[in-house]
Amino acid sequence: MVDDTQTRVMALIEPWNGRSLLTFRKKTLTPEMSLNLDMKLDPEDAAECLQNVFDAFGMDSDQVMFSLYYPKKPREAIPLTIGMLIESARARRWCYD
Amino acid sequence: MDTTEELNDTSFYAGRPNLAAGELFFIIFCEEVAEQLGIDDFGAIVAVLSGRNVLTTRAKPRDAEKGTSYASRTSRRVFQTAKFPFGIQLPTVVGGYPPWTARIRWTHKLSTFIGRAVPVVGWVILARDVADISFHTVNRYNTIARGEDKLW
Fold first, then answer.
1. CA-CA to B16 of 20 to 30 Å: which in A3, A32, B113, B148?
2. How many Cα neighbours within 13 Å face the side chain of B122?
């Protein structure tokens, strides 16, 4: 289901999707991709990206438990997917922990 | 070197007479350390310490890693939103205290990259120092030590 919200969220995340240093290719963003595990964004960049999306939809980013996705022990990270952002943008609030 | 100072197979180094082989090695090591540590090492230590997240920030989103580092804050202030050309991504090393928690992350922002790279440069300089000191120590010891005491 591709709708307006999804297009807008994807457009907000697209600038954070850089080209690989070696292959010079961009990854194709899908809702299943995660910011932390697939795109491997630096935590400071991920926080900024989240903030952009949350601002665009008038949501409060304090609802997000950022340490779940970027914990002190990197092994325990759970994926923060683009789909989660889209769902939350539709609901106008963060629907996850 | 002087005959009176080299009795009983001992050596004379840096003003200290009657040094056995092990003592000679230790003295050379100390001298090399003193010689190696200079202004560039001070810079390296500053670089490493500037990477620790000791500054408090208003964490947003809630619960993001508390605080930022001097390196990161300064870099963000200087480069602001500058990006790499062609939207290229470069690797950053995140975490690393202790080392096995370090992970490679990617960024297309100049400020993030520089902020994360400064402490790495510091560690590289310090590692080179350690290698330099050990190499010079062994090398110098070997030129001074006699006969059986030589390492190679």
1. B148
2. 18
Pairwise CB contact (< 8 Å): B61 & A66:
yes
The answer to whether A43 contacts B106, with C-beta atoms less than 8 Å apart, is no
How many other CB atoms are found less than 10 A from the CB of residue A8? 15
Give Cα A14 to chain centroid, integer Å: 10
pTM of this prediction?
0.73
A54 vs B61: CA distance, rounded Å? 10
Cβ proximity of B41 and B125 under 8 Å: yes
Q: According to the model, what pLDDT value does residue B79 have?
A: 83
ipTM beyond cut 0.85: no
Q: Which member of B60, B65, B72 has the closest CB to residue A70?
A: B65
